[in-house]
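Backbone geometry tokens:
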Amino acid sequence: MPTSSPTINRWSVLWGSVAILMCTGAIYAFSVFAGPLGAAHHWSPAQVILAFTINGAVGPIPMILGGFIIDRGSSRLLALIGGLMFAAGFIFTGLATTTTALYLSYGLLAGLGQGFAYSACLNNTLKLFPDQRGRAAGIITGGMGAATVIAAPVANALISSHSVGTAFVAMGSVYAVVIVVASLFIRQAPVGYTPEGWVRPAADGRAVNLDWAAMLKTPVFYMIFLMMGVGAFSGLMIAANASGIGKGMFALSAATAAVYVSIYSACNALGRVAWGAVSDRIGYTNALLLIFGVVAASMLVLVTVSSTVGFAVGIVGLGLCFGGVMGVFPALTMKNFGPRFQGINYGIMFTAYSVAAYFAPKLAADMGKAHHGDFTIAFQIAIALAVVGAVLTAVFTRVQKAHQDALAAPTRESVAVA
């Protein structure tokens, strides 16, 4: 039976998790590091961007394995280990002198560490907020999005005054300290946790929990998977190439481009919190329809308006919506499959993000290089995908209704009362 646990201060767990993800979220400042990193070691843009691609592509490994560990009660340890792996990956990146070392440190070590920390912080904390799923997911993932607001200008200053290697080492060292302190606030969410005084709304229906095997048998899983992959695509194109887009298409200086990277990241963080709260009120699918619409409009602005105002409008819109994607989907996954196995379930779902992370940054970088800094074709592809995402979301409402009706049936073998 669900139990309340007044001994757990769920808000302390949430803010400790936010602090850890504000460290690992420095991954989104990569576009500030990319140019100086290539220049310092005479690496091509394609060689450098591959490190970011590997970092995102290894995501399913720690998310799925981490989810398995979280669901068995080791969230704090996993958050600590993952966070320290990420910090170590940053430090070793600063010391790397070959592309192999770069891929092992930034791509593999930091990528695995980020995934473990993200999985532990997000999925464990989300179990403590069944009454505010969207809001909690938005705040948690917002911490990761907000990281670059600080990381981008700090990195740019350190690179300008010292070197890109020094920037990586110094920032990684600070992250390690913050992660150790923040992990002390993490507590494992009890199975079936219910906040004191909260009663499940009738609209939520019967409490259900599907494990990963049962989840994979449902059509709704594949719909959410496709929607998440499409939704993450445009945001990842910008996250990895924002600085290059600003300099190549809008003639911005490196320092000014770094400011816009921070603006994008601030909007990314704000979007996670805002869309998470909005989705609790209007529903996750309605929120996603709005998100895909704004993505298409923002990309259209980038294609048609060549001034810095156009770049600013596009950056703000895409940042808000990429944040929305990352804030809404964890809650949408829990709504459809329950909290008990959220760790591994969302780990599997998160592979959609990793697929997008593999293709989107490289696609945008290759097209920008082929067209001498012009990313127009990449933006046009993203517009088409946003339209596809909106269509998928519209269809999903019917698929989800059938899924929920099936879960309500007492004879369903894969349903366990929480």
